[in-house]
Fold each of these.
Amino acid sequence: MPLAFLRRLRDRTPHSPQPALPRGAGALDLCVDDPVGLPMAGAEISVRDASGREAMAGRTDPNGRLTVTLPPGGYRLLVTSDGFRPVRCEAQVTAGERTAPRPITLELAPALPLPEAGQWRLDPDHSAIRFTARHIGLAEIHGRFNRFEGGLWIGERMQDSRVEVTIDAASIDTGVRMRDDHLRSAEFLDVARFPHLQFTGDRFVHKGGSRWAVQGVLHLHGVSRTVQLDTRYLGIGTGIMGETRTACQAVTELHREDFTLDWRKMLARGIAAIGATIRIELDIQAVRPE
């Protein structure tokens, strides 16, 4: 009864007048619901034409709605959201008309099997730690750390797990030797005094579907700060030698001032040598020790 009332309330909610359609075009008024019939915000919808070319893509609003304006014709829709089965369907667009197909309902996807409890070793040969920062306030620079090691200790409950990663600061690599030497210098990472970056995460929080938040402490440049890795778990697989592997992707953003990486001399001259935030991306595979 409450769910039916909420659905009726959504359907009766007044909407702002729809803008006139461009001449010769039509519109699809799409609606996406979750498994219990409530509107699903943030669902991704890709609309492709008869040739397979993506004509439009977007996300549903807080009411689970997305309107797309297209030339007349037949289209294929792909609706996805993390933790749910993708839905494929077709729709027809008519010139001068607004078409409202039946609501699209997403069903929960089966949960990926979690890693077996115990110790797992990070495999550097199949992992990467990358970063992106702005250079002098304009173009982005991309780099990576080439040497690192670490491990995962998976608890009987995933929430009780722990991860440790140690990175060789001198292995920073942006593809430009002069810039890399500068990044290793006392003005930035100061690798002579602080040869390693280290992250220890001991709080795993399930965010739904394959999403986890891994919270821990990053030690960088002699400073320790709490950070959160927004993590996507990729499941279990088997390597070429028959070994069992587990994998994930993770991202976070660091504020350089938090780690006293401010290049004060250059900033005093009005040169923003590096942006206020640095984006860190990780592709991680781990294996069980022999």
Note: The longest strand covers residues 223-238.
Amino acid sequence: MAITQAAEFLATWETGLDVAPAGRALLLHGAARPDLGGDRQALLSLPVGQREADLFALRRALFGERMQVRLECAACGADMEFELDAGEFARTLADRGDPLVRVAEDGWEIEFRVPAVADLTAAARDADPRRALLSRCVVTAVRDGQPVSADTLPVAVQRRIAEAARAADPGGDVTLNVACPECGEGTRAELDIASFLWTELDAWARDLLLDVHLLATAYGWSEPEILALSPLRRRYYLELCADV
């Protein structure tokens, strides 16, 4: 992590302690996109896949390329541990198609906007998230030349829309399919990068605060003075404290 950003990310962590997971994801996305200047509406208007790509890029910048992931086999319960490449995910998910998806199916013609972060957040609060997402993101729906409501779309058409949306914005649904080394069966699981990154940031922040406590006790330095030290120099000073 860049030296000048330690205090900023510590503040982000502190703010995120008292908010829901969706709020933490927004905080992390704001940290990943300083070019947006913390503009909440601008962040919420970005496609979901863009947010995921940004968060993978942030994870790479903060903690490196390699991500250690643990997953329980759905078939035999074995604990599986494997590595993912944060940089590769960031590059792959940044490659998106046209945000306006067009689907033609059995007399139906649909224009569908790939979901933005705000759409997904709002739909998650609805009793029927799928219906809510369709209602927000279907731009036009026509059957045999006549405009119709998005609520009337049959399941087959909804499935085609979902497939087209995934192709246009693959980062909107990052799902892993991992073969178990014990039984050979595959396990599918969603990779929630916001939750994964928050867990890492939380561990980093608590370790850093312990470093601050130890160095402040040993040398009488203030928190800003300690955070201004490079991680390498902090480690050397901590080693000196341990030797005393």
Note: Residues 9 and 31 are 8 Å apart (CA to CA).
Amino acid sequence: MKALRYLALSVAAVLFLVPFYLVVRNGLVSESEISATSWTFLPSSVRWENFAELFGDPAVPLVRSMVNSLVVAVLQTLGQLLLCSLAGYGLARIPYRYANVVFYFVVATLMIPAAVTFVPTFVVVSTLGWVSDLRGLVIPGLFSGFTAFLFRQYFLNFPRELEEAARIDGLGHWGTFWRVVVPNSRGFFAALGVIAFVTSWNQFLWPLVIAQDQDSWTVQVALSTFLTAQSINVHELFLAAAVSITPLVIVFVAMQRWLVRGVAETGIKG
């Protein structure tokens, strides 16, 4: 039974890794080999010079775009973890008259399609002069109603005994949150942080509208420029896609232990 389990996991791992291999493989071969009728799983030759061609392409500032995406993703992730955790803790633990009303309004925002708020948000950002500016890319995504909802549900199940012990020591809500709740919720914070980072990194439509000059492009906008009405630069597109997912892989590998712990702390049974 154990051998069959490992065999099934190995087959699943291979199936998940094959698309990543194909992306890297197509990025390191010539255009003709990608579109050849006699396509082979293993390339006949590897063109390492494709890296120099990709990063030297003046039409696509890939490095600058990746830096922009990294800045936006990190700031939005930190902002969501800070603001949404405070909102979730306040809704879960601080009693006041309209707590449920505020919570229902937060949940109601989840039912509004993003397309409905897209134009009003753009008008506000444009009025503030944040078009082609990192502020226009970062600030609208600093708060998420869904993340606040998840934090509230998590804090509702947080052990009250720990908070009561902190109150006996003279801590208020603010001190209890930072000194007791946050240190004991690092796994959950890490799990939501990874989700927020990946979501921010993969955003395309909003950066496409806001980042109207090359200096403010994010990596997803930069990738789209390889596809034009006149031509498709296939091998550079594949190689750029492979390069662009590298930060996501690093985040997953670095946070894997905390992700498992975060899932365990949510009480989800697999």
Note: The first helix runs from residue 2 to 27.
